[in-house]
């Protein structure tokens, strides 16, 4: 609850990419024992964008079913969260607004704080709805994670977008006060403007994440939050799914709770199904965890979910959400399964070609090859402008 009013996630939909790279292909390429990927980091495959897909096409594909179901009459704000931004000035949300044909009387903005951005967007949306309860906010979290080839981070790439409609009397999850907050100035993961791929201190990033779990939970408790035992499940940011297990183990341990594996599996296991095959989708990852939980778990009506959103650099927020009665009637489980299952597998050489592809910066006309079978595509970079289109068959 935000104050006395129930505000939260009314609808949730995700989209991912045209292609997928199985970790078996990566392991064959670099000679890694596959157990390190499947068990050690908990990843089976990663989504790979086609040459004509980006954060805008994924974001629009995630949000389109929400607009189709609810219309856009009540949407007055679009908040686009990303850390793989395509422009230093223009919000990617404006392209999504255009592709979806949303009304001109809409506020559109882009937010950034590494993987935390989507939670910032969600919390800002809750605040806007509190001020104007008849309005709804469309939150779009879309990212492509990129590390250098042949680096330890390579196995933790991925891409996806989650769209959420935030409003009063939500059909899925009520967002509660208070939040626990934790900021620390650390260089665990960052991407200078001149780089396509992120820089990372792998081990340091895991430590920074765990410190942020501890710090945000401490503040949550001090702000009058609920005891740990009241939560049924925990949606952690999942750069790789094993990280959710490490985080929950750390939280239980620092609060003096039993850390047996079954308890950890019950709390985080159902949140990992999509992330384990999609990979790190940065801002979208925590909410892919929520989609997985709602789509996979037994009836969660009235149950409390803990959300731990971490963004390197770093900031973390812990908050609670309560699952609303009747939520199952509003889920998009078949479409989510289709988004994952429709991806076409790549071999490692094809993945590498896509990874190293970039647009020339000469301002010329650079059409993209038609690869995606999704509803939207990046057709060209022309005169330094990104040209998007709705695909044939999705008109
Ligand atoms: P690495 O050096 O490739 O792997 O780095 P490792 O040697 O640490 O091994 C990983 C695990 O596999 C270990 O388990 C091994 O024991 C195990 P752990 O000790 O951690 O429990 N292992 C095996 N298990 C079974 N069978 C085997 C086997 N071999 C080894 N045969 C690392 C791994 C994640 C650091 C690397 O991939 C990396 O740098 N990734 C990118 C950074 C990252 O994801 N950091 C996570 C925290 S920061 C974060 O979440 C924010 C982020 O999303 C960005 C943002 O906020 O914007 C990244």
Mean pLDDT: 97
Number of E-type strands: 17
What is the subunit organization of this protein?
single chain
Distance from first to last alpha carbon: 39 Å
Low-pLDDT stretches are: none
For this structure, what is the CATH class?
Answer: Alpha Beta
Task: Supply the helix-strand structural class.
Answer: alpha+beta
Bound small molecules, by name, code or SMILES, are:
3-hydroxy-3-methylglutaryl-coenzyme A
Describe it for me?
Residues 7-169 form the Hydroxymethylglutaryl-coenzyme A synthase N-terminal domain. This is 3-hydroxy-3-methylglutaryl-CoA synthase. GO terms for molecular function: acyltransferase activity, transferring groups other than amino-acyl groups; hydroxymethylglutaryl-CoA synthase activity. By secondary structure, this protein is an alpha+beta fold. The protein has one domain (7-390): 3-Layer(aba) Sandwich (Peroxisomal Thiolase, Chain A, domain 1), CATH 3.40.47. It contains 12 helices and 17 strands. The strands form 4 sheets. Strands 5-4-6-7-1-8-13-12-11 form a 9-stranded mixed sheet, with helices on both faces. A 3-stranded mixed sheet has the order 3-2-14. α3 packs across α4. It is globular, with a radius of gyration of 20 Å. The two termini are 39 Å apart. 3-hydroxy-3-methylglutaryl-coenzyme A binds next to α2, α6 and β12. The site of 3-hydroxy-3-methylglutaryl-coenzyme A (HMG) has 30 residues, from α2, α6 and β12.
